[in-house]
Write a structure and sequence with these properties.
There is one protein chain. This protein has 108 residues and is α+β, with helices and mostly antiparallel strands. It has a single domain (2-95), classed as Ybab, Chain: A. Helix content is 56%, strand content 17%. It has 3 helices and 3 strands, in the order H-E-E-E-H-H. A hairpin with a 4-residue loop joins strand 1 (29-34) and strand 2 (39-44). Helix 1 (2-26) packs antiparallel against helix 3. The two termini are 34 Å apart. The mean pLDDT is 85.
């Protein structure tokens, strides 16, 4: 019975660590740029777009397609950074369990 109690205690600790990781992620923000800084955007930890900056020189060319491409590129990069941050926080919280096949959100 002690083994089950120990397992339950570890499960509770893991749950607390995962909750803390989720809270850290929610409080996080990532930024990315495209076109050598012509477009810069930020995403919150939940993935919401929180800021976008577009260099005025982009409008001088009046090329909507280029601007669209720059925004999409910056968003893809920011999303990849956010996904990486989330995986890192969850791996840290899960400790040795992160290497288990099928652990949610950490293994393919």
């Amino acid at each position: 019975m002690k083994d089950i109690g120990a397992m339950m205690k570890q499960a509770g600790q893991l749950q607390q660590k995962l909750k803390q990781a989720q809270e850290r992620l929610a409080a996080s923000s990532v930024s990315a740029e495209a076109g050598s800084g012509l477009v810069i955007l930020s995403l919150s930890g939940s993935g919401d777009l929180t800021h976008i900056s577009i260099d005025p020189s982009v409008f001088a060319d009046a090329d909507a397609e280029t601007l669209q491409d720059l925004i999409l590129a910056a968003h893809r990069l920011a999303k990849a950074r956010l996904d990486s941050l989330q995986a890192e926080l969850m791996r840290d919280a899960a400790g040795p369990l992160a290497n288990m096949p099928g652990f949610p959100g950490l293994n393919p």
